[in-house]
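Per your request, structure below.
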């Protein structure tokens, strides 16, 4: 990511501001290191508790500093989408998947073997990760008392991949350099590990269950942002009414970003859920001979007649898991 054009221009004009940003840069790097340490502890705890073998596949550390008018999630989401597309096409190790160049060759081989089975899941995975990052960053897009907010999360993805994610940030008014605007500083660190043991354990239903939890978190965040907006605007009406419009816009931008990512996640989730719900509803009338079950009748329904090719692949996978249980 890096520094916005507005901040770069300000640096050229103001020695004091340059010194301020250098201090902010040093603090950001220290926070990145702290977050990475917390992620490594979480990785060890996760795999040790389940007694699963694992290896690091890729990871990245990112910091950004922005003044309020430049705020946006486009660059972060573009990075995540690039990673997802590279994984889907097997285009790694490469710079498109940050950190994958240092992964062991055996890990790369295992990842490609197992991820190929789950290629259809990437639209859901990308939407989930983007929503997670959007939710984490959106909470920093409004004025605060400069208290740093941090988050540490992990989630199973697919094909044995597991994402470990940490974020930290603060946004606050800095009147020495900007008139009625804010400085935002945030850090994102994520690590993705590959485990053959976890790939064999994790099923489609578990991925959907985890996605439901993500949606609940995003919905709760939307409500929290709206409540904070009302409280802040009431306070501003009492103290400094000229900040009303800019503060309202700040919260509205956070709400719009979080709702947009929530809606993308819902769209992808519904595609999967509609297939699994249909399979469950019609299960006793389906042709299950491919799964070692006798045909219900000569008129048993073929999956290929019920679903399009992508849906049929998901239905086959769901039935394999269902009958292997």
């Amino acid at each position: 990511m890096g520094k916005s054009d507005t901040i770069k221009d300000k640096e050229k004009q103001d020695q004091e501001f340059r010194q301020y940003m250098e201090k902010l840069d040093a603090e950001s790097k220290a926070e990145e290191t702290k977050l990475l340490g917390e992620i490594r502890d979480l990785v060890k705890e996760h795999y040790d508790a389940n007694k699963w073998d694992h290896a690091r596949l890729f990871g990245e550390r990112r910091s950004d500093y922005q003044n309020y008018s430049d705020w946006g999630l486009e660059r972060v989401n573009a990075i995540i989408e690039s990673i997802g597309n590279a994984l889907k096409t097997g285009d790694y190790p490469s710079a498109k998947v940050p950190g994958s160049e240092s992964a062991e060759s055996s890990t790369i081989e295992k990842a490609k073997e197992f991820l190929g089975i789950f290629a259809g899941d990437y639209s859901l995975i990308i939407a989930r990760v983007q929503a997670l990052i959007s939710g984490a960053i959106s909470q920093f897009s409004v004025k605060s008392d400069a208290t740093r907010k941090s988050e540490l999360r992990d989630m199973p993805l697919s094909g044995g991949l597991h994402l470990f994610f940490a974020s930290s940030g603060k946004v606050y008014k800095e009147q020495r350099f900007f008139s009625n605007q804010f400085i935002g500083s945030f850090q994102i660190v994520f690590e993705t590990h590959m485990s053959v043991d976890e790939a064999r354990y994790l099923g489609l239903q578990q991925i959907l269950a985890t996605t439901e939890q993500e949606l609940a978190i995003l919905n709760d965040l939307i409500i929290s942002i709206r409540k904070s907006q009302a409280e802040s605007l009431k306070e501003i009406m009492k103290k400094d009414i000229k900040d009303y419009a800019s503060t309202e816009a700040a919260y509205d931008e956070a709400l719009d970003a979080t709702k947009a990512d929530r809606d993308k996640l819902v769209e992808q989730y519904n595609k999967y859920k509609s297939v699994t719900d249909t399979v469950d509803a019609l299960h006793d009338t389906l042709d299950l001979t491919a799964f070692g079950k006798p045909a219900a009748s000569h008129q048993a329904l073929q999956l290929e007649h019920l679903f399009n090719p992508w849906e049929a692949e998901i239905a086959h996978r769901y039935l394999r898991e269902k009958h292997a249980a």
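The longest strand covers residues 55-67.

Regards,
D.
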